[in-house]
Write a structure and sequence with these properties.
It is an enzyme of class 4 (lyase). Belongs to the tRNA-intron endonuclease family. Keywords: Lyase, mRNA processing, Nucleus, tRNA processing. Pfam families: tRNA_int_endo, TSEN34_N. The protein contains seven helices and eleven strands. It is of the alpha+beta class and about 290 residues long. The strands form two sheets. The protein has a six-stranded mixed β-sheet. Strands 7-8-9-10-11 form a five-stranded mixed β-sheet. α2 crosses α6. The longest helix has about 40 residues. The chain starts with a strand and ends in a 6-residue tail after the last strand.
Length: about 290
Amino acid sequence: MIRIYLLEGKAFVWNYADARRIREEHRIVGVLVGALPRKPRQNVRLGLPLELLPEEVRLLLDKGLATLVRSPTSQSLGHGKNQDALVPEKVVAYEQELEENYQEQLRLSAEQKKTMLESLADHITQGRAKKWQRKGEGEEPLQRPAESGSCFVLPRESMMIQLPTERTQIAQEETVDWHVASQLWPYAGQERHEMHYSIFRDLWERGYYVTTGSKFGGDFLVYPGDPMRFHAHYIALCFSKDAPISLCDIISAGRLGTNVKKTVLLCSVEQEGTVAYTSLQWSGMQ
């Protein structure tokens, strides 16, 4: 079961395997919003967590593929003196784990260097002998290169550390009922959300990949395949069936779609629950 964590009305997937699964198996894309540990001061390449649209979350919930959970806050882990008493023990355990990791990396690095020197021992010995002969000092006392590297030092700032993307310790989590509106999930029963979800699901069931369309001024972008391989073909704009649309909005949408080489879809939900689509393409006068 895919676990989706809620925070102030936004949904996030933290597990890498879950993020990969919902994209490869269920055509749910989402948006990566986390900084990369090795390159935190840039926003060209982002990492976990994966933020999902409310419609993407709803689809996974309807299919029975996911569950909504609320992460425990810092106050729920303990209160007062009991919590304060646990802090020193956790610090000591963490420092002990770091020291064990350092000693293990030091041992492995020393063994790797010794192996490398032994493989190059003959070459190094010949090079040293030629150097001594050029200086006219006779033959150099034989010394194994591996012996000179026996005192190996690994700077502590060079050691590798693990950066977990999930909680390293089991914590109590609260399941959120997505059928009831709450501060964490305010979309239940909202008419606009229901309309957007009906359109999103209809496009998804037709085999398309659907993502947010905010960067092109629409509600959704519709792709014929994975967005990593294809450009979007449609910009979907969602309207209520009986809501009037101004002529200026229609012209603006048509010109926008033409400039970015996409077709604009005006989408609405009929009373029977079916979705109606009207496409707009700019046609110049001859």
